[in-house]
Design brief:
Length: about 100
């Protein structure tokens, strides 16, 4: 009985520790990136953000065209997105002020 309990505990611990690593690859799961908008293309309904942590550029498809009306190049934003078929679909764009950005670091 003790052996079975020990094995089950070990399996549970490994599952809990490994779970978050696999969650990054789950399609449809929401992700976030914070950085500056480097390009906005309203014709193709896309925009690009330079991630402030990794300094990588990510190009997003906006969920709807109205999302891009209020954003401008150079603006500091937080983008909520999901991955679908090797595309990044932005579901929300939130402007970040200097005080908000400092608080989130």
């Amino acid at each position: 009985m003790k052996k079975a309990t020990g094995i089950m505990s070990l399996v549970l611990a490994v599952t809990l520790l490994a779970g978050p690593a696999f969650a990054l690859d789950v399609p449809g799961l929401k992700h976030h990136v914070t950085g500056n908008i480097t390009a906005v293309d309203r014709d193709t309904n896309t925009f690009t953000v330079m991630d402030e942590k990794s300094q990588k550029s990510y190009t997003f498809n906006a969920k709807d065209a109205g999302m891009l009306r209020a954003v401008t190049k150079g603006e500091h934003v937080r983008v909520s997105y999901s991955k679908k078929d090797n595309q990044l679909m932005a579901t929300d764009i939130t402007p970040k002020t200097a005080s908000t950005a400092a608080r989130n670091r």
